[in-house]
Design a protein that fits this description.
Number of strands: 20
Order of helices and strands: EEEHEEHEHHHEHEHEEEEEEEEEEHEE
Shape: globular
Largest sheet: 6 strands, mixed
Radius of gyration: 23 Å
Bound molecules: adenosine-5'-triphosphate
Organism: Desulfoplanes formicivorans
Helix content: 25-40%
GO molecular function: ATP binding; ATP hydrolysis activity; transmembrane transporter activity
Strand content: 35-45%
CATH class of the largest domain: Alpha Beta
Number of helices: 8
Keywords: ATP-binding, Nucleotide-binding, Transport
CATH topology of the largest domain: Rossmann fold
Structural class: alpha+beta
Pfam family, one: ABC_tran
Protein name: ABC transporter related protein
Strand order of the largest sheet: 6-7-8-3-9-10
Length: 338
Amino acid sequence: MLYAARNLRKTYGERTVLDIDELHIQAGNIYGLLGPNGSGKSTLLSLLAFLDTPSSGNLWYRGNLVRSHPNELLALRREVILVDQHPILFSTSVFKNVEFGLKVRGIPARQRKRIVEESLDLVGMRAFIHERSHHLSGGETQRLAIARALACSPRVLLFDEPTASVDVENQIAIENIIHEVHQEKNMSIILCTHDMLQVSRLAQETIFLFDGRRSASTHENIFSAQVYEQDGMPLAKLTDQIAVPLASSVQGKIKLAIAPQSIKLFPVTAQAGKPQRITGTVMQLTREGRHIRALVDMGVPLSVRIPLREFTSLSICVGDRVLVDCPAHGVSILSRDG
Ligand SMILES: Nc1ncnc2c1ncn2[C@@H]1O[C@H](COP(=O)(O)OP(=O)(O)OP(=O)(O)O)[C@@H](O)[C@H]1O
């Protein structure tokens, strides 16, 4: 077991922002860490990277209880490296940025040069070795940060939204790097992201956080909504134009999740029939095993999971207008006072 945690809490003043009863993370896997904004993902990553200590509860790393003694934490930080979404680089050369961690570890100069070159090769950045790091683009900066982490041969790599601020080309490059590092070096990886598709492409396991707590199921399509009644039926208003039906009657503001597999799409020529059907545009279609994941823009983005056979008979393409049906049984209320 790589990590285990019990009753792990982080509080700021009166506010508990992370409250994890139980967590087990196996070595050698890629874990996707998902959750809406403010759900505690970065807080959990900081604890797992030993950059912060919990307010209460226990964390074990490779079977040993983690204590908040500075020297012990320092030793653990050599095994676990967090690649931040906005890496802080020294305003020197790419070479010196990657070399720094090796110098700190007392690696001799000739060996350092070889390791820096190999690490830059791994991320396709060897040609930038003498560039000033502050001249790099967002994607190159992220790849340099990965090379800097890899140079130190960590046992565990943690990524905080590695592709959030990069273009598609760099996103593909970074996903390939993560995949190769995992395959070739058998490194354990925890990847915090908002991108469900990225998780399905890269991760074997998923951890989902909601309001600082672990959630048993992976909620997607999370919205804040105002509940109202129409003809005695409870509806949740997502935007001025969009409302979805609820299975139970509640009042006020709520936070809800719409299960992607419950949503039905129809060609826009089909009769709308029910008033809750909404129109949207298909923005992206991706194969996920025996399913197709469709990203539909209906004013707000909606992720839809369609069995392959059903999708084939639908014959919809990217750019098509579709009718969207979100049945009440697929809408779960996550919290009141949304
Ligand atoms: N140093 C801090 N002091 C006070 N509150 C904090 C501090 N750091 C984080 N928080 C709060 O803890 C909660 C969880 O934050 P965290 O950054 O872990 O969420 P997240 O899931 O990573 O969000 P995002 O997806 O937006 O990055 C937030 O409400 C945040 O405001």
